[in-house]
Here is the input.
Amino acid sequence: MTIQEMKERKKELGYTYAQISELSGVPLGTVQKVFNGATSSPRYETLQALERLLGSSGDAYIREVQSTYAMKQQGEYTLEDYYEIPDDIRVELIDGVFYNMTAPTSPHQLIAGFIYAKLLGHVMDNKGTCLPMISPLDIQLDCDDKTIVQPDVIIVCDRDKIINRCVYGAPDFVIEVLSKSTRKKDMVTKLNKYMNAGVREYWMIDPINKKVIVYDFEHEEYPVIYGFDAKIPVQIWDGECVIDFQEVYEHIRFLYERK
Here is the structure.
């Protein structure tokens, strides 16, 4: 991994120099010199430590976990370990494996927020009982001690599942906005978790390719792929609510038009 790639990864994660130092074990002054170009030939051990933190794509390297309690093997972590992680470090726990969560991009947040507002507006207008909710929010998906996820947007229709600590059980509807660092996890790992846990409908929104991939598990109709010019019905509400992705695109068009 080159220094330039590390710089790009730092920007994607939103880490400060102090956070990189704390999580990698590399002294703060050394981190600053490496990223500012003051050190042209960093030590091999320094590069190794930085690459372990920045080069893993978030798939199973959480240094903070090691400094907080005795290191376990991936697959052995539990909710007890999850709640030991400092609040300023966002992770998901899936089948005992920790996955780092990068800072969301502007398109990611604008898309998720816009759709959440539309879903909430539909519920309010129709005096519905389902509750749209937006991340960050813990979902104890399987009601066990091995999995906690944080989808971008959810709808929960059984209010008994909503407790102070988390949503306990599968939401009815889930949206994940894809990013480079979470794409594989959202499209493979979490897709299967949501399907097997009893989620009724799952949307994956791809801002880069301007696509929406819809899995209607309840009616066994999937996947259906839409463009950002489509009007997509929310099937758990029998299509009474429709998200117009032309409106979504217009909301973020300015980001695509910048050179």
About this structure: Confidence is low (pLDDT under 50) at residues 57-70. The two ends are 27 Å apart (CA to CA). The first strand starts at residue 91 and ends at 94. The CA atoms of residues 75 and 96 lie 4 Å apart.
